[in-house]
Amino acid sequence: MKKILIGIYILVTLGIIFLLIQLNPKEKKDLVAIEAGEKLYMQMCSSCHGNSGLGEGAKQGTALNNQQFLSTVSNQDLIHYVKYGREGTIMPDYKFLSDEQLNQLVAFMRDWQTEKIHFDAPETISGDIDNGEKVYGLYCLSCHGVDGVGKKKMGTALSNPQYLKYTTDQQIWISTAYGRDKTRMSASLEGLEGVRQLSKDEITDVISFIRSFEKK
């Protein structure tokens, strides 16, 4: 009986060792990608987005190390944002980076994510553009500017072609409704701890107005 138990113990131990050997290459690969991405980030991104990604850089870039933001964007979204930049803003494009470098940069940014937050948003965003313009003028214009051109150190350029191309209506709705912690963008949805207290329909109207910038 004792020999049987020892045999089982040895088999279990060998099985665990085998699994660890199989898992280690992936873990090492991810770690290597994150470390390479950190080097790229410090070289090209930290001056605007800050060493910690909180938007504390000298040029006041967007806060990337933000759980709300990271919960609503895919890795492909992040690649698009980096690769194509934002025309007409201080965010240049990085088309010269290889696919491997882009993936490394995204791996580093994704490593900031500590939780996956689920947000409710309408499946279809179709509101009253005219009312959206009125609500925008009351609550959004002071930071995001006339026609969504943005204001330095205040608000993102919402009418930027790259922003509108690579950001879905639902992503804009969520950012507007729930805001982003530790940034100037507080929640707007009624019932949350925000100043604006907008209804879901009013937020939908605002998003429809923002989306209309594409046609101008």
TrEMBL record:
Pfam families per the UniProt record, alphabetical: Cytochrom_C, Cytochrome_CBB3
Keyword entries, A-Z: Heme, Iron, Membrane, Metal-binding, Transmembrane, Transmembrane helix
Transmembrane spans: 6-23
GO molecular function: electron transfer activity; heme binding; metal ion binding
InterPro entries hit by this protein: Cyt_c-like_dom, Cyt_c-like_dom_sf, Cytochrome_c-type_DH
Domain Cytochrome c per the UniProt entry, residue ranges: 32-214
PANTHER family tied to this protein: ALCOHOL DEHYDROGENASE CYTOCHROME C SUBUNIT (PTHR35008:SF8), BLL4482 PROTEIN-RELATED (PTHR35008)
Annotated protein name in UniProt: Cbb3-type cytochrome c oxidase subunit CcoP2
Species in which this protein is naturally found: Pseudoneobacillus rhizosphaerae
Species classification: Bacteria, Bacillati, Bacillota, Bacilli, Bacillales
Gene that this polypeptide is encoded by: ccoP2
